[in-house]
Amino acid sequence: MEAPEPGASRGLMLVVEADAGARDLITEQLRRRYGADYDVQAEASGDAGLAALQSLGDRNVPVALVLAGARRAHDGAEEDFPGFFEQVRALYPDAKRGLLVDWGAWADPPTAHLILRLMALGRIDYYVLRPWRTPDEYFHRTITEFLLEWERATSQVRRELTVVGEAWSQRSHELRSLLVRNGVLHLFHASDSPTGRRILAEAGLSDADLPVVLFHDGRVLVDPTNAQLAEAYGVHTHLDGDADFDLIVVGAGPAGLAAAVYASSEGLRTLVIERESIGGQAGSSSLIRNYFGFARGISGAELAQRAYQQAWVLGTNFLLMQEVVGLRSETPWHVVTTAHGDEARARAVVLATGVSYRRIGVDALEALTGAGVFYGASVSEARALAGADVFVVGGANSAGQAAMHLARYARAVTLVVRGPSLAASMSQYLSDEIVAAGIRVLLHTEVVDGGGDGRLQQITLRDRGSGETSTEHADALFLLIGAEPHTTWLPPDIQRDRWGYVITGPDVTADPVIPWPLSRPPLMLETCVPGIFAVGDVRGGSVKRVASAVGEGSIVISHVHQLLSESRANVRPTRAATTDAGR
Ligand SMILES: Cc1cc2nc3c(=O)[nH]c(=O)nc-3n(C[C@H](O)[C@H](O)[C@H](O)COP(=O)(O)OP(=O)(O)OC[C@H]3O[C@@H](n4cnc5c(N)ncnc54)[C@H](O)[C@@H]3O)c2cc1C
């Protein structure tokens, strides 16, 4: 949809409540607090609410928030207006959706079940406690958080940047994705839209210049590289000045950012080098539900921005849009080289380069990531999938464990495996458990399509032998089709396991083939090259979670302190120390 121009109609909040007293109270609270900036409308039923949304859509009115009350059905179960939230999402994908419940209702099992189910299926953003006093700041805290998220996600106000490009061009998409993942608010206009054409004409540009980025202060970048865009935004992409640090962190995902926060807070002069965007994989997660302390989840980009700002105010130096391509040791220094030719050195280096989950490569399913399609095990969703039809794709132990866990809650679990058997990729005990648990296993099968109205509702399976396809109802699809660590650039001295993950700590000395040059054993997160550490997903045996990446990133700083005090005390080498890690 073409983004409205600044000054377009005000955002609207819709309240759908069957109970007239509750409806009036909520409407009044909203009008009093937000009436200067938002319109508030109330309806008494799901049908009336949907009709109102249709009509608002016809008039291009932006809807910021839809709150609908849970009501008790005849059988005593608590339910929303059936099908209501799915249709709201289809009509207004950006509107925040809240289920209104009474204070204390979480102790009521049917209400608790309804909240968990709607959250797990992505039908609501969160539950909202009906206000019961004036002012009710808990109610307003949820509402203002919703409004901030809606404002960040939509294009109703003037932004720092405007991108004009072809709607379906890969580079346009890359630029926008880069901006989103780095938390930069921007507008996008397709070059063939009326606004896009007008902006190009006013700037004296043509389709040959696409994509273009326009800053609010009048600067224009024509088809910029990532580094040019970052520089123009005021982000350092080159080292200027001193290139000596106590610690260099490679990668600014959760693990690298945590290492930066703890290192800088403890007085270490720290440089973080990131090749792409702050937040790593987490930055691509629309909602992280299992990170400690964020009950209704937090977007990965938001979490990463907070961590980035925290590290920055504590004094961390950042070098962004620069890929580290070389690492060598010149005792007592470790020297990193970037693709642009910059060099920096430190006595300790933390590798936090993460992995990429293999994607399924089916656009219709990618579009539903988070709305029934999940990368990884996402066990936090499992409990709320009671009665659901769930598919897990993958033939390794991780997929098997996810299937077993989900089978405790779901109505039916199907494990979809490309290969001809589980034996080659899954432990015997696990495949035995899968059979015993009644999990359906489809061998030699792949998922080739899927879809639904705002959330996953069906998938298409293809038998790789016969080529026959079939479409099945699906409430959730968990994709565990492997991950690849970013370690191919590392020098051979830094030992990796057969999958490419960096070997650390006790695993270094457990393997007699791996050389270890010091009299002390390697520290828990240390690689086989003293002073070079690995944390987060890139480390062999790590738990692939934001919280564990953050945990390792913070723990490693105590190792760095130990290393720095050792280097002052001069730990004795047992064999010739490796000094050519960069060759
Ligand atoms: C779609 C998605 C959703 C997820 N949802 C959840 C969730 O809900 N909960 C959860 O706990 N976990 C989730 N995860 C997993 C979680 O994001 C990862 O476990 C976590 O991000 C790992 O952090 P990390 O810092 O180790 O690595 P990463 O996040 O992979 O970050 C590594 C960073 O290093 C950079 N880098 C790589 N090589 C170089 C180089 N040579 N030079 C410079 N920089 C480099 C990369 O660009 C990247 O920014 C999700 C993952 C994905 C993909």
| Distance, first to last CA | 52 Å
Give the helix level as a range of percent.
25-40%
- Total helical elements: 15
Q: Note the beta-strand portion.
A: 15-25%
Q: Which residues sit in consecutive blocks of at least 5 with pLDDT less than 50?
A: 1-7, 573-583
Keywords:
28 strands; five-stranded parallel sheet; disordered N terminus; about 575 residues; single chain; binds flavin-adenine dinucleotide; disordered C terminus; seven-stranded mixed sheet; alpha/beta; globular
Quick rundown:
The chain has 583 residues and is an alpha/beta fold. It is 30% helix and 23% strand.
Task: Describe the protein.
The chain has 583 residues and is of the alpha/beta class. Residues 1-7 and 573-583 have low confidence and may be disordered. It starts with 10 loop residues before the first strand and ends in a 14-residue tail after the last helix. The protein contains 15 helices and 28 strands. Strand 1, helix 1 (20-34) and strand 2 (38-43) form a beta-alpha-beta unit. Strands 12, 13, 14, 15, 16, 17 and 28 form a seven-stranded mixed β-sheet that branches. 30% of the residues lie in helices and 23% in strands. Helix 9 (254-265) packs across helix 15 (546-569). The structure holds flavin-adenine dinucleotide (FAD). The site of flavin-adenine dinucleotide has 38 residues, from helix 9, strand 13, strand 18 and helix 15. Flavin-adenine dinucleotide (FAD) binds at residues 250-256, 273-276, 280-282, 284-285, 288-290, 323-324, 352-355, 357, 375-376, 486, 489, 536-538, 544-547, 549.
Write the layout of secondary structure elements.
Layout: E1 11-16, H1 20-34, E2 38-43, H2 46-58, E3 63-69, E4 71-72, E5 78-79, H3 84-91, E6 96-101, H4 109-120, E7 126-129, H5 137-153, E8 161-165, H6 170-181, E9 186-190, H7 194-202, E10 212-215, E11 220-222, H8 226-232, E12 244-250, H9 254-265, E13 270-274, H10 300-313, E14 317-320, E15 324-330, E16 333-338, E17 343-351, E18 355-357, H11 363-366, E19 373-375, E20 389-393, H12 397-407, E21 412-416, H13 428-436, E22 440-442, E23 445-451, E24 458-463, E25 469-473, E26 476-479, E27 483-485, H14 506-510, E28 532-534, H15 546-569
Parallel strand pairs: 1-2, 1-3, 3-6, 6-7, 8-9, 12-13, 12-17, 13-14, 17-28, 19-26, 20-21, 20-26, 21-22
Antiparallel strand pairs: 4-5, 8-10, 10-11, 15-16, 16-17, 18-27, 23-24, 24-25
Helix pairs in contact: 2-3, 9-10, 9-15, 12-13
The structure holds flavin-adenine dinucleotide (FAD).
Flavin-adenine dinucleotide binds at residues 250-256, 273-276, 280-282, 284-285, 288-290, 323-324, 352-355, 357, 375-376, 486, 489, 536-538, 544-547, 549.
